[in-house]
Design brief:
two-stranded antiparallel ribbon; Arc Repressor Mutant, subunit A; 10 helices; mainly alpha; DNA-binding; homodimer
Chain lengths: 204, 204
DNA sequence: GTCTATATCGCGATAGAC
DNA sequence: GTCTATCGCGATATAGAC
C-alpha cells in the first residue's frame, strides 16, 4: 500500500526518539513527521497537539469509567476506589517501573507537559466523579471521593516511582491511603503506625 | 509620561471585555492590545501567554508560602492548613462570590484555560508541599498534606460557588473537611443508610 | 519595537481499500 | 463508487529572538 497503517505508532516512536536525542522543546513537528515519513498535517490528524504524543494511549479515565459502571451497586465508594487502584497498579504499572519513570521524567522536565499532565489529572477526576454520580452518589460526595481517589493515585504513583523497582505499587497505594488518613486525623503525620479499618496494624 | 503606568490593568480590562463579547478563543492578542492602545509585544511583556491574563494576580501560592513560614513550629499540619484556608477564604473570596464565579465560568468554558487552571493547582500543591518540607516535615507526609490541602481548597471553592452568595466560604471549608474525613472512613457523609462505625444510622 | 519561527488548522485533491 | 487516510498548500496566531 501507499501508506503503512501504523502511521500513529511511527509518529509516536519518532517523537520519543527525537525528544530523547534533542529534548522536547527543541524538536519540531516537521522533524517528527520527516522521520516518520509523513507530513506535518498528518501529525495533527492523529494528535490534537504536540503534547499529546506523550500522553497517547492514556485510557485510564476509560478504565475508571468501566470499573465504576461494573462494580456492585452498594459497595462502599472507598472500597471501589482502592480496588480499582490495585487493579490499575497491577495491570498497567507493575513491571514497567523504568518505562513509566522515563516518561514521568520527560513530563516533569517540560512545563508545558507538566501542564498537560495536570489537565489529564483533572480529566480523570471528572471521570471518576461522574462515574460515582451515575451510581447514584450525592454530587458533593462524588466530588470528594473522586478527588480523594486521584490524589491517592498520584501520591502512590510518585512514591512508587521514587522507590525501588521491585516494590509493588499496590502496596504503595495502601501505604498512601494510611498517610492520607493520618493527615485527616490530625495525627502527627509521620507517625509510624496507622490503624486500618479492619483494625490491624499497618507499618509504614 | 508618554505611556500610562496602568498598562497591565488596561490589558486585563480589555481582555475580559473582549472575552465576554466574543469568547476567549475568538479573541486575538492584537485585538486586546488594540483596545488597550498598546502593541502586541507589550502584552507578552506583561503576561507569559494569552491564558495568563485570566489568572493574573494569583498570589495564592505566595500567601501559602508566607503562612507556612510564619506558623508556629509544632502546630499540627492539618491545623495550619485549615487556618490558612479560613484566612484565604475570608480575605480573598468572601464578598466576591459573583466576581469569582464569573471568572470560574470563563475558565471552565475553555479547555485551554481549564488546563492552565489545573497547572496552577499543581503549582500551589508544590508550594504547600515545599513549605511543609521546609518546616521539617517528612517528604512523603508533606506531599500528602499538600494534596489534602489543595483538594480541600478546591472542593470548598467549587461548593461555595455552587451555593448561595451569602454562605461563608470558611464554613464550606469545614464542611468539606468533614466530607473528606467521611470518605476516608468509608462512610460518605450523605450516603443513604450507611451503617457507621458507631453503629448508628446516617440517613440523608 | 520589529522580525520571524513554528504550532495549528482549513481546504481541496488524491490514492488506495472495500 | 464510496470511504478513509494522506498529501500539499496556505493562512494565522502565538510566542520568542534580536
Amino acid at each position: 500500500m501507499r501508506w503503512s497503517p501504523d502511521a500513529r505508532e511511527r509518529l509516536e516512536r519518532a517523537a520519543f526518539e527525537l525528544f530523547a536525542e534533542q529534548g522536547y522543546q527543541a524538536t519540531t513537528v516537521p522533524q517528527i513527521t520527516a522521520r516518520a515519513g509523513l507530513t506535518t498535517r498528518t501529525f495533527f490528524r492523529h494528535f490534537a497537539d504536540k503534547r499529546e504524543v506523550i500522553f497517547a494511549g492514556d485510557e485510564i479515565p476509560d478504565v475508571a469509567r468501566a470499573a465504576l459502571a461494573a462494580a456492585p451497586p452498594d459497595l462502599d465508594p472507598l472500597d471501589i476506589v482502592v480496588h480499582g487502584l490495585h487493579r490499575v497498579a497491577d495491570e498497567r504499572f507493575e513491571g514497567r517501573h523504568d518505562q513509566v519513570r522515563a516518561v514521568r521524567r520527560l513530563i516533569l522536565s517540560e512545563p508545558s507537559l507538566r501542564e498537560r499532565d495536570a489537565r489529564k489529572r483533572a480529566d480523570l477526576t471528572d471521570a471518576v466523579r461522574q462515574g460515582f454520580v451515575d451510581r447514584g452518589l450525592d454530587a458533593s460526595d462524588a466530588a470528594a471521593v473522586a478527588e480523594t481517589a486521584v490524589v491517592l493515585f498520584h501520591l502512590a504513583l510518585e512514591s512508587w516511582l521514587d522507590g525501588p523497582a521491585d516494590r509493588r505499587m499496590a502496596d504503595v497505594v495502601d501505604e498512601q491511603l494510611g498517610r492520607l488518613r493520618a493527615v485527616l486525623d490530625g495525627r502527627p503525620a509521620s507517625s509510624r503506625f496507622v490503624t486500618r479499618r479492619d483494625g490491624r496494624r499497618n507499618a509504614t
